[in-house]
Amino acid sequence: MKKKKVMAMLAVAAMMTVALTGCGGGGATTTAAGDTTAAGDTTAAGNTAAADETAAATDTDWEGASVASGLSGKVTYMHSGDDYEREMYANVFSSYQKYAPGVEIEQMYVPSDYYTKLQTLATADSLPDLFWVAESSARMYYDAGLLANMDDYLKQYPQLTEDIIDGVLEFGQFDGSQYAFPKDWTSYVMYINKDMFKEAGVEAPTNDWTVEEYKDLAAQMTQMSADGSRVEVYGTAINNYRADWINWMGNYDAEWFKDGKSNLSSPEAKQGLGVMYDLVQAGSAPSPGTVSATGDSEDRLFIIGKVAMYPSGRWTIPSFRSECDFEWDAVEMPKGTTRTCPFICSMVGIASTSENKDIAANVLSYQMSDEGLALVMESALSLPVYKDLMANEKYVNTPPSAEAFINTSEYLGNPSQLEVCKTGKFSEYNSMINAGLSEAFEGNTTLDEALAKIDEQANTTLFNN
Question: The whole model's pTM is what?
Answer without folding.
Answer: 0.89
